[in-house]
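Regression test case RT-17, inverse folding.

Input:
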């Protein structure tokens, strides 16, 4: 007689196989629980010092990732749902930098209690800031954590191609301050596709100049990306972008399936039609082979790096369970107690002004978030960190208590050739890298699924009403109809 565990394993094995056969493309899993699950926190229940004191008790080797959010952009890409506002006002940049540095100082004890591993300045487009703003940030950090340059293995900033190509002297100043990596959004090297992304101010020549400039200036790690599934993209145009980028030799390359979430402009207008077809996995296969042939190694399901130089340390460490302290108006913080934001998920100039005021008055508190049970901590690691995970690390959070639920998923993944079992260590196979997000979805808890579904159903309804009022044509998604997920 077949055991209940074997019955569950067989059912899950068939489920995974069916999703792979159908070419299901879930959104890329870069956080768990996703932002869509955040809800208003009870006023006064959580204080930032208490959250981080509780988190500190959960770690034998206390470490920390630091994320600094700069929300400003000079344009809004159509597929972007990040916390950004359009501004190039240097007076606003000055005030925001002052507020961010005040917030860094207010978190001095939290930072000092841990070994600082990475500093990432994201956005937005923080490269819009001037060198004096970065100098102010780094000076503030040095004041509270004098040896931060000795302990930190990565200092990263997000940039646009034009911010490097058109202002090389300012970018060189950042390298001289200790910048080790820049994330540069490229998305495509085909002019029509670049325009489709809503980035009409840049072209492929600016992208090439930016990459050459970064190399010439001695930036240790230039991280670039390409997106599969733009409207009008063909197998030929995809191969062109992949081949061109491989020849330009950035140290890190990411390839993403396009996901237009309901809170992005493309979805709000309903005017954009994009691909979400199983054939996109053929583009994944092509890119992977080209990058491996050019000497890259695969670091994750979406990322390739030059050995010894490339990579994305903060993301890897966060997936491994190292907590992340997010400072700035739209930043998220990830702890073993509570994932939280100190602002709303809806960006606005008014909220940025309110953040500047509250930071100056030392009034920043958690506003939205989700409390993590021990079970959700285990699920987080399984969702994010299946590339190479020792399950023994999860026993102190109660893995064995829920093993009857998790082990059949792992058995089914192994049966489909997605992972290796090395004792209690699991590692994804090349096939597992390819279908990692199919596997990750299977570790979502029912409460998280419910919150995620509620959030996106409400957004879809709001977008439908708005499009009806505008008389716009609804968005048509070809391929598998799968709910949007982590935002």
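Golden output:
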């Amino acid at each position: 007689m077949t055991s209940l565990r074997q019955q569950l394993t067989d059912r899950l094995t068939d489920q995974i196989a069916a999703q792979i056969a159908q070419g299901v493309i879930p959104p890329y899993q870069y956080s768990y629980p996703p932002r869509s699950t955040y809800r208003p926190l009870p006023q006064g229940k959580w204080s930032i010092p208490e959250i981080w004191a509780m988190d500190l008790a959960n770690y034998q080797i206390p470490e920390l990732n630091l994320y600094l959010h700069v929300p400003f952009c000079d344009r809004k890409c159509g597929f972007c749902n990040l916390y950004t506002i359009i501004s190039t006002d240097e007076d606003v940049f000055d005030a925001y930098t002052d507020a961010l540095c005040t917030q860094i100082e207010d978190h001095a004890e939290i930072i000092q209690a841990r070994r600082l591993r990475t500093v990432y300045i994201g956005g937005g487009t923080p490269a819009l800031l001037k060198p004096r703003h970065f100098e102010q940030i780094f000076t503030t950090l040095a004041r509270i954590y004098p040896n931060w340059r000795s302990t930190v293995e990565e200092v990263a900033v997000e940039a646009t191609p034009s911010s490097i190509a058109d202002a090389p002297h300012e970018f060189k100043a950042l390298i001289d301050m200790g910048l080790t990596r820049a994330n540069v959004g490229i998305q495509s090297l085909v002019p029509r596709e670049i325009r489709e992304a809503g980035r009409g101010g840049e072209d492929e020549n600016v992208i090439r100049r930016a990459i050459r400039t970064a190399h010439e200036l001695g930036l240790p790690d230039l991280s670039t990306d390409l997106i599969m599934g733009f409207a009008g993209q063909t197998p030929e145009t995809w191969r062109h972008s992949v081949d061109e980028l491989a020849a330009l030799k950035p140290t890190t390359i990411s390839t993403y399936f396009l996901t237009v979430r309901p809170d992005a402009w493309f979805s709000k207008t309903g005017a954009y039609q994009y691909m979400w077809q199983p054939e996109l996995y053929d583009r994944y296969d092509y890119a992977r082979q080209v990058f491996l042939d050019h000497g890259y190694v695969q670091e994750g399901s979406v990322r390739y790096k030059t050995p010894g130089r490339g990579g994305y340390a903060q993301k890897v460490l966060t997936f491994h369970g190292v907590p992340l302290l997010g400072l700035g108006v739209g930043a998220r913080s990830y702890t073993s107690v509570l994932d939280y934001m100190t602002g709303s998920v809806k960006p606005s100039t008014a909220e940025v002004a309110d953040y500047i005021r509250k930071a100056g008055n030392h009034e920043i508190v958690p506003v939205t978030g989700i409390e993590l049970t021990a079970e959700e901590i285990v699920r987080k690691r399984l969702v994010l960190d299946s590339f190479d995970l020792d399950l023994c690390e999860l026993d102190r959070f109660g893995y064995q208590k829920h093993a009857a639920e998790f082990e059949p998923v792992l058995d089914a993944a192994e049966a489909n050739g997605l992972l290796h079992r090395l004792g209690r260590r699991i590692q994804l196979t090349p096939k597992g890298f390819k279908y990692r997000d199919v596997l990750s979805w299977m570790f979502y808890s029912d409460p998280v699924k419910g919150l995620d579904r509620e959030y996106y159903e409400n957004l879809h309804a709001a977008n439908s009403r708005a499009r009806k009022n505008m008389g716009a044509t609804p968005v048509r998604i070809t391929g598998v109809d799968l709910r949007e997920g982590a935002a």
